[in-house]
Amino acid sequence: MCSSISSNPVFLCADICIYICFCYHLTRICCQSVDSANVLGASSTTSDEAVPVPLVMIDQDSDRDATIVQLSFGDRLGALLDTMKALKDLGLDVTKGTVATDSAVTQTKFHIMRFGRKVEDPDMLERIRLTIINNILQYHPESSEKLAMGEFFGIKPPEKKVDIDIATHVVVEDDGPKRSMLYIETADRPGLLLEIMKIITDTNVDVESAEIDTEGLVVKDKFHVSYRGAKLNSSLSQVLINCLRYYLRRPETDEDSY
């Protein structure tokens, strides 16, 4: 029967038309399926909302003998063995502390000591901060657009830059009769902690302890400061605020400072 149909020109033409139409519709269905898969894949891997903000906190207040480092990047950080090794390569004693999960955010703490005590050298504290951030960038390249350091060390700089004038806030408040609390919030950049510490010491102000928080593109630092064993008076507080605002709002940083 098939041979009789195929030998008839009318049926042969009809068969060809049906076959062409079938192939055309099949091709459209396949292409639509592939396009849909591509769209879903792109949205799941490149969605800006899906990438959490990396957080790195260096705490000099909580422990009398050790520097506490706490870091998180949503639920994406693993055992952090490479980070611990990188910190040990700086000549530090590193022990892993608690690991806590809160609302799908995993927070990991390290206890860091140098020569049997907490790290006090500003240069080493900045090296600790940059080492941790560099490791996040290396093992989680998607964080590059969420960190200010992504512009210097990452695969892609942040699309949204922080306006230094808008982001910079400096406040000094009394924290008892013997010390004041200095709050600093500004855009992050390499060597920032060294800049801040130099400005503070240049105004003859002593730093007793600090908490250095890096939240994506900005830093939010707190310093317990004093002047000759007492809290800062209003005049010295204003001098310190003006100096910090001036230097932190500069668009570029001298390379010699870090």
TrEMBL record:
The keyword Repeat applies. InterPro entries: ACR1-12, ACT-like_dom_sf, ACT_dom. It comes from Setaria italica. SUPFAM superfamilies: ACT-like (SSF55021). Keywords: Repeat. Binds amino acids. Residues 181-258 form the ACT domain. This is ACT domain-containing protein ACR. It comes from the Eukaryota. One of its GO terms (molecular function) is amino acid binding.
